[in-house]
Amino acid sequence: MKRDSRLSDVLHVLLHMAEAGGPVTSEVLAKAMGSHPVVVRRTLAGLRRQGHVRSEKGHGGGWSLACDLAQVTLRDIHEALGAPDLVALGHRTEAPGCLVEQAVNAALDRAAREAEALLLARLGEVTLAALSADFHRRLAACGGPGESERTTYDMEVVHGD
What we know:
single chain; mainly alpha; Arc Repressor Mutant, subunit A; two-stranded antiparallel ribbon; 7 helices; elongated
């Protein structure tokens, strides 16, 4: 079963944008993600509609954050992506005639709903600022530059490419 990595992908991009301190082109973000600029633009368009990011055209343009990292949770971003399924349990048959399979489907549905509710609650507790702070702790532990030492953003250094 293919995993849906959109939430992970967009959180990754948002943290890169936070580090950039200014507009970042779709091409640069796509390179960091191993993706295509069109995919980045399509994904960020939903976040722009929710007011989390903005885009500027022309020379010096690109994507930048339009929100306070401390005010936006992972759940907010999940919802801005269209709230894709978080739990990927499926049924053997959607409308079974077999009573055993009906019981199995009911149990799996209940478990999936409960798991998704717990996951959504946890996503609502974690802000983008918390992710950024975790990144900075990890960077410092690796001997990376501190805030005062960073004057320009280098996607390759931060991303490890």
